Amino acid sequence: MSGRASRWLKRLPKLNPHLNLHPTERWYGESPLQLPLLAASFALAWYAGVRLLAGDAWGVAMWFVGAALLHDLVLVPLYSLADRAACKALGGRDRSAVLYARVPAFLSGLLLLVWYPLISRARPEHYALVTGRSEDAFLQHWLLLTAGLFAASALWFVTRTFLAPGSPWRQAHRARRQERKRERERERQRRRETKERPPTDH
Amino acid sequence: MRDLHLPRTLPDPWRSPLRGPRFTAVLGLVLLAGMPLLFVTGLLSYAAYNPNLAAVNDKTPDKGLLGFYLFSWPTDPHWLYRLTQGLHVTVGVVLVPVLLAKLWSVVPKLFTLPPVRSLGHALERLSLLLLVGGALFEFVTGILNVQLDYLFPGSFYPLHFYGAWVFISAFAVHAVLRVPQALRVLRERKAGVAETGDLVPAQPAEPTVSRRGALAMVGAGSLLLLVTTAGQSIGGVWRRTALLAPHGGEDPGTGSDRFQINKTAAVAGVRAADAGAPWRLVVTGPSGTVHRLTRADLLQLPQHTASLPIACVEGWSTDDRRWSGVRLRDLAVLAGTDGDTDVFVESLQQHGAFRKAALRHNQVHDPRSLLALRVDGADLTLDHGYPARIIVPAAPGVLNTKWVARLTFGALR
């Protein structure tokens, strides 16, 4: 190899950062620490996974992979689109106004997501037979909590909008009052001027 | 020649200005504390069943090396299982919004192009499938189980136990590889360095909420779940605030039986007639001596009282109730042992995974362990195990067998 060619080869890593990597990283694509860690992790996952799949293997695999797919491809797009639609509908003038609907909707939706089997009364006879209690209360409680959350949010919105010292409503109110005061002042001025006017010719 | 002005990349659908490595790092560090707590309390719950004592106690007998840590479950403090399992279920429920927010924050990574860059990247993506699938699988099976909605494909115990091991294998490697990065990006924030990384949106949309606001919203979700759930475990007046927990709100019953029921007599297949006059408790020992005792005979034996809770694997528990009845160790002596031996308990119940259960010698020997006949000054009701039930300090609820029909004392293992 000519001297010129070898000098060029030595400069290569600087031109292509990929070639600066450790030889393993170059063909493996990640840090050399990652491979043994993942190997150990997969070995343990395999040991437990064989036992996890010992019964209804197809059903369990569907649930395991399905949970991730359902979350990423259905739940996330669904709530993202709902949020975007709500922002468009509510946030025309004041973007912060969206939060007063978003926060209670998020909290209420979260409660529904976690306790859906109880709230939806999926198996009311079963629950009552097992625990000796009625399942009806959960739907009522959830509706009351939802109503309470939205009511609290609305109250907060009203308070912030109308009663806070720096609120636009307060400022407008103050401006109107000052305007009226100025109007009265001008009226008084006019009257004074009228009184002091010399009498017109009879 | 006309210039076409083609966009160099497709419009980016991930435009939320909230996303970025710092937002993910904060949520990740919360899960770094929470997930190991769930895993450890879950392992403790398995140990609390004393699975190595008898086959009837073990719902995952093919556990192999995964049972390496098992130990004899103690009886002190008497609220031990109430605490560990209350934490397991309550913290699990409370972490739901954190988990969802964490997954939302990294969802663009699922759709990165090209899908696989290298061998290392392919293996990492496979590991992430085990991590995300495992986390959701564990949360979904756990949350369905505490609501008695057994939709999942198989028995809850093996699914939740082996699923936890698959999850933790991926979680551990993810933590080792990512925690240094999470700490670094948070240090950079303090140092005022601009945020970089592939989670930062290329074309951020107009913000509608600050990051602090978004984290506060997630925190509010956790707080709301805590307030509406924790009371079923803490008990007292807090049970009233547990408005959505399966065993929160009003207690069933009217008098001394006013506390939560795991399974009623009706669902266990116990009829009042079987538990009435013809009922006899059969007590046997290693020498083969057999005693048949009526309820009146049992009431003639020395009666003792113990204040103990019932704590269920589903995460709810009762406050301490005043149980009274015969000490298990007295019955063990009656059966011809020294009072420090294992016992095999059989119930009248027709249905239920734990109609037979085993207790270890330390549980039998504890002076607070009773064959209870009465609670809070009145006879047990049928739904709470009349004519006689087991009550053992710190043991999971399913080992406090109701409607006891037979006690076989002697070393089991």
Outline the fold blueprint.
The complex is a heterodimer of chains A (202) and B (413).
Chain A: H1 3-15, H2 23-28, H3 34-52, H4 57-90, H5 99-114, H6 116-119, H7 124-131, H8 136-163, H9 168-196
Chain B: H1 21-48, H2 80-94, H3 96-105, H4 119-146, H5 156-191, H6 211-229, H7 231-234, H8 265-268, H9 272-275, E1 281-284, E2 290-293, H10 295-300, E3 304-308, E4 321-327, H11 328-334, E5 343-347, E6 356-359, H12 361-365, E7 370-375, E8 378-379, E9 389-391, E10 404-409
Parallel strand pairs in B: 1-10
Antiparallel strand pairs in B: 1-2, 3-4, 4-7, 5-6, 5-10, 7-8, 7-9
Helix pairs in contact in B: 1-2, 1-3, 1-5, 2-6, 3-6, 4-5
Written description of the protein model:
The complex is a heterodimer of chains A (202) and B (413). By secondary structure, chain A is mostly helical. Among the domains of chain A are: 1-46, no CATH class; 59-90. Chain A is built from nine helices and no strands. Chain A has helices spanning 3-15, 23-28, 34-52, 57-90, 99-114, 116-119, 124-131, 136-163, 168-196. In chain A, helix 5 runs antiparallel to helix 8. The longest helix of chain A is centred in the middle third of the chain and has 34 residues, at 57-90. Chain A is elongated. The termini of chain A are far apart. The relative contact order of chain A is 0.03. Chain B has 413 residues and is of the alpha+beta class. Chain B has two domains: 21-241, no CATH class; 265-409, Oxidoreductase, molybdopterin-binding domain (Sulfite Oxidase, Chain A, domain 2). Chain B contains twelve helices and ten strands. A five-stranded mixed β-sheet of chain B has the order 2-1-10-5-6. In chain B, helix 1 (21-48) runs antiparallel to helix 5 (156-191), helix 2 (80-94) runs antiparallel to helix 6 (211-229) and helix 3 (96-105) runs antiparallel to helix 6. Chains A and B meet through helix 3, helix 4, helix 5, helix 6 and helix 7 of A and helix 3, helix 4, helix 5 and helix 6 of B. Chain B: The chain crosses the membrane at residues 25-49, 87-107, 128-148, 160-180. Chain B: Keywords: Membrane, Transmembrane, Transmembrane helix. Chain B: This is Oxidoreductase molybdopterin-binding domain-containing protein. Chain B: InterPro entries: OxRdtase_Mopterin-bd_dom (IPR000572), OxRdtase_Mopterin-bd_sf (IPR036374). Chain B: Residues 277-409 form the Oxidoreductase molybdopterin-binding domain.
